[in-house]
Amino acid sequence: MVNKRAPGNPGSRSGYSIIEIAVLLVVLGALAPPLLGSARKLRTSFYLQRSREEAARLFAEARWAAVAHGGATVELATDPAHGIVIAANGDTVTATSLDEGGVTLGLSRGRATARVRFGPMGVGMVSSQTLRFGLAGEERLLVLSSLGRVSRR
Question: Is 142 a domain residue?
Fold first, then answer.
């Protein structure tokens, strides 16, 4: 009995034929455009979500710093989009970039900068603010109430 899969046997088959490879390439070519579009949307959504959550984290850090140090301020800027938490004693508690992946930040009333203050009990001392995070035609909102509560929209 002859083993057809033996390495020295000319009838043994290893690898793929050119037709099998061509069929695979055609199938991949047909599936690529919808998959790339979905990947772009997912990437955009990820960057928007990340920037919004970083801003929410800044406000949470500011509340804790306000309680610990007798007050705190969050300074936001739109160009480049970033935020800084400064304690009442003048120390920088944390700083973060909010423009990763090309995300733009829009502040209430079209301002370029904004300051949000928190009192010694961690309560906001500001009129409500709406932060708009935009990228590729999509937008996410972060609304800060006058008492310093954060809601995502």
Answer: yes
CATH at 92: 3.55.40.10
The DSSP line for 55-109 is HHHHHHHHHHHHHHHT-EEEEEEETTEEEEEEETTS-EEEEEES-GGG-EEE-GG
Of all residues in the chain, the percent with pLDDT exceeding 70 is 92
pLDDT in tens, 68-108: 999 999 999 999 999 999 999 999 999 999 999 999 999 99
Q: What is the mean pLDDT of residues 125-132?
A: 88
Categorize the per-residue pLDDT at 7 as very low, low, confident or very high, splitting at 50, 70 and 90: low
Is the residue at 2 inside a domain?
Answer: no
Query: Global pTM?
Result: 0.77
Buried/exposed 106-145: b ≥16 CB within 10 Å, e otherwise = bbeeeeeebebbbbeebebebeebebbbbbeeeebebebe
Count structural domains, the chain: 1
For residue 13, being part of any structural domain is answered with: no
Q: Please, what sign has the CA dihedral across residues 90, 94, 100, 104?
A: negative
Domain range enclosing 27 = 18-152
- Is 9 a domain residue? no
